[in-house]
Amino acid sequence: MTIRIGVTNQKGGVAKTTNTINIAGALADRGLDVLAVDADPQGYLTHRLGFEDEYTADPPTFYNAFASPNDHDVRDLVVAHDEFDVLPGNIDMFALEQDLIASGMRPRQRLQMLFDDVDDWDVIIFDAPPSLGPINDNVVLATENLLVPVRADESSKLAVQHLLRQLDTLDENYGTNVTISGVVVSDVHYPLDNEQKRMLEWYEERFEGRVPVWVVRHRAAIERTVNAHCSIFGDEAEDTDMTDVYAAIAEEIDQ
User: Could you tell me if 231 and 25 are in contact, meaning their C-beta atoms sit under 8 angstroms apart?
Assistant: First the structure.
């Protein structure tokens, strides 16, 4: 059975794409077949993995499949990366939210329809856009299983509260059963300042006994490696002591 998981937070700048790439790499390092899906119109995952040409490719692209899932097979749009497969984003996706709303036909369930019978991979991980719009809702409904990347700051605390309200709304309207599999506190600088310390304590207390909270320390090697088109588990990756954290996240997902 394919595991589907969304990496989502309506706030930008929380290392969402970096986490998606490294979690996909960690899952692949466990021997799993992984598909990473770039559902963000900005296409950061696509660019960081070296698929710039696919981002500006002519139709059919992920935009067309997302907008009209009954007319496309997602398998035809997947490209191979050294570590895992990728479904690239496309620049036309900037029009997607408006098109989904205008269509009126299950605008928040298109991804669910597109991936309904797709079981070619052990894990499909979606990089969601930093918003609470219909694309993000599509990711939530298609996966019902989320990882939430955050920063150790007050603005991320507010973003988490917005996300939880979004999930309540989707539950009321669609009868979902969304699971948050974990919270990833990214780019934490040590020694901790007072705000980081306070926020780490808040995450631990807020999610204690419910979901794990992982802390990824600031490491320049992570950013350099991802900018070199691979995860920290790739053959060309720089050494970093954060591989154990991502390996633990992958183990949680695999279980």
Answer: yes
